[in-house]
Amino acid sequence: MLEARGLSKSFGRARALDGVSVEIAPGEVVAVTGPSGAGKSTLLHCLAGVLRPESGEVVLDGRRIDTLGEAELTALRRQSFGIVFQFGELVPELSAVENVALPLLFNRHGRGEAMAAAAEWLERLEVADCADQRIGELSGGQRQRVAVARALVTGPRVVFADEPTGALDTLGGEQVMTAMLGAARAGGAAVVLVTHDNRVAAYADREITLRDGAVLAGVNP
Amino acid sequence: MGNRAISSPRLFIECIVVIMSTGHVLLGLLAERPQHGYELKKEHDQRLAGAKPLAYGQVYATLQRLERDGFAEVAETRQEGGPERTLYAITEEGRAELERWLGTIEPPAPYVAGGLFARVAVAGKAADGYLVRQREAHLARMRELTAEKASGTPARVLAADYALQHLDADLRWIETALARMKEEGDHA
């Protein structure tokens, strides 16, 4: 469904990715692990169409996406991908429910419809009580659930999560992981999960380990 | 336990291995209510989910030892057609021993003696490939335990957490060892 072939990407003289190929099947949960600087986040951003690789290609459902124009790529990201960051990256001026509604509003849904769908997602992630609160009033765990709701509200094919539990304690992280994977499975979305925490990686169906910008051979089941 | 039990080195070791764990756990279960050996075994296996199930022979041997040391006593013996059933109860001395044990800290492991560490100590830098395979085996077990947690009883979840965090500690050591080997290789 989503495939990367021979991706390479450098930042200045530092080579972040060096010919990485991976394939993500529909509905699959894949952890991308490896030490700091191994290229985990760069791979995630290339797959998600946030960064463009220097060489190699990214293919979604048979269609090459790394060569799309900026407008087309943005539209594709909004429709097919959801992203959860380590610190939520929510809009502090908006309430929780407005944050979740935002991707639908960008996709030109009506306000009433978007707000109703957003409220439903908050309910599913058990943070309905926080709907009208500003982001600053929420706990770390609540923020991440709102971020998960925002990533899933458009019914994406793939959810990308970059250290989604990095700012949470063990139990808070466990609750966010369970909520995120439950919601993704229910919607049939694949999840690509970047983490340096093995306990988080253990939620995945399989693991891709990067070392020095390349896939470590012999570790994938 | 009491001084009586520590009468020879062999007995002392036996004390640590058998009584220090199983004996105190059985005392803890008996403190809740008097029980038969069969019930104690069931309760032990349920409460210490993830631990090796207790053999009946070990239950009765431990109970006899607790009785000998004055920590437990026979409350009732009954025979109704079937085999003889003995109900055990904790004594006042047993309660005091249990309190003492619950309040004692476990000594932090003073040395490393796992097979994982031993292989790396012997193989040195050549352990690289072994560590990568061991890492994969650890992660596979962590995936199983994580999946078990989704549908487990509270006792199972606690046991799985305990196992997961110990495996994670091994994994972090494996990753550090791999990074050190790489660093040494780069400088060589």
Protein described:
The complex is a heterodimer of chains A (221) and B (188). Chain A is of the alpha/beta class and 221 residues long. Chain A has helices at 40-47, 70-80, 96-106, 111-124, 140-152, 170-187, 198-201, and strands at 2-11, 14-24, 29-33, 55-60, 63-64, 81-84, 158-162, 190-194, 206-211, 214-215. Chain A is globular. The longest helix of chain A has 18 residues, at 170-187. In chain A, the strands form two sheets. Chain A has a six-stranded mixed beta sheet, with helices on both faces. Chain A has a four-stranded antiparallel beta sheet with strand order 2-1-4-5, with helices on one face. Helices cover 36% and strands 25% of the residues of chain A. Chain A has seven helices and ten strands. Chain A has one domain (2-215): P-loop containing nucleotide triphosphate hydrolases (Rossmann fold, 3-Layer(aba) Sandwich). With 188 residues, chain B is mainly alpha-helical. Chain B folds into two domains: 3-103, Orthogonal Bundle (Arc Repressor Mutant, subunit A), CATH 1.10.10.10; 115-187. Chain B has seven helices and three strands, in the order αβααββαααα. Chain B has a three-stranded antiparallel beta sheet. In chain B, β2 and β3 form a beta hairpin. Chain B is elongated, with a radius of gyration of 22 Å. Residues 1-20 of chain B have low confidence and may be disordered. At the A-B interface, α7 of A face α6 and α7 of B.
